[in-house]
Amino acid sequence: MDGLDALKRKYLEGVAAAGDEAALEDLRLAALGKKGEISLKMRELGQMTPEQRQTTGAALNLLKDEIDAALRGKKAALSDAALDERLRAEWLDVTLPGRPRRMGTIHPVSQVTEEVTAIFADMGFAVAEGPQIESDWFNFDALNIPPEHPARQEHDTFFMARGAGDNRPPHVLRTHTSPVQIRAMAAQGAPIRVIAPGRVYRMDMDQTHTPMFHQVEGLAIDRDISMANLKWVLEEFCRTYFEVPEVELRFRASHFPFTEPSAEVDIRCSWEGGQLKIGQGDSWMEILGSGMVHPKVLSAAGVDPAEWQGFAFGMGIDRIAMLKYGIPDLRAFFESDLRWLRHYGFSALDMPSVFGGLSR
Ligand code: PHE
């Protein structure tokens, strides 16, 4: 029996001191394995007297259970400690603020183009596109501006060079987005409802003119579209775009070769302390040209003017961007000055929408 006490001390101390699972397994084999010390002692029970066998057997079983329990307990403690260690190592403060990443900003022209597109999409207008290098026919003739027409001079057109001996009229950098009217009608026919945002070019440069700028064309053709529809669409657009409860538009009789009748549209505004306010006041600001599409334009695009009619308008995107966001000089739009872009730019993550807010 003395031997058993020594064994007990040896193994329980060994278990307590074991540093990992491998050491525990060695101890288990040494004590309880097939050739372990306890197992060997069990085997000796056969040569004992029945009385001896009873007391020694019971003591051995007790010792075996004790060592087994100690082994299990230590094993659990080791794996708890391992888990604690891992949790400590992988600890992460999820309340720390994120590291801001500079992602660049959205240019005001892109922002406003998105805003305009979102508003007209909401009114059922799809987006149409056309090339920036345009043929003389699409940019002028098809829009009822024949070669000798004075409007050709007013456009300050950039001409592309033709090869030597090629006497066809040169291509041009499109002077407006109106050629997309022709392309869209020729491709889709009528009825049609599209806007066409994009770059246009004219030889001009001062505080409010740059040789390249942006327009958005609007076109709605159906059997019974009138100036009243044009007025409603433009009012609805301006109210939503300028994010004011009420706007007042003034239609001024004007002339464009591709519309009849034609109107330039002004919006009511005020200049208080150099601050422009849209919606109220006693000043007017011109924002676009418009009118009922000329029958000759419909014909040029393969749409029968006896059956179809509608309105068109053309608006300067840079101009309405300046008005809405208080940007005084158009030339800054195209200087790629990072300080200006960061000041006037918009977050890439704010997608303008009519329901979610245009500019926030
Ligand atoms: N294309 C005209 C311009 O650039 C604008 C316009 C478009 C006017 C459509 C009437 C209809 O000035």
TrEMBL record:
Transmembrane segments: none annotated. GO terms for molecular function: ATP binding; magnesium ion binding; phenylalanine-tRNA ligase activity; tRNA binding. GO terms for biological process: phenylalanyl-tRNA aminoacylation. Residues 110-335 form the Aminoacyl-transfer RNA synthetases class-II family profile domain. Keywords: Aminoacyl-tRNA synthetase, ATP-binding, Cytoplasm, Ligase, Magnesium, Metal-binding, Nucleotide-binding, Protein biosynthesis. Its cofactor is Mg(2+). Its main location: cytoplasm. It is found in: Cytoplasm. Belongs to the class-II aminoacyl-tRNA synthetase family. Phe-tRNA synthetase alpha subunit type 1 subfamily. This is Phenylalanine--tRNA ligase alpha subunit. The lineage of its organism: Bacteria, Pseudomonadati, Pseudomonadota, Alphaproteobacteria, Rhodobacterales.
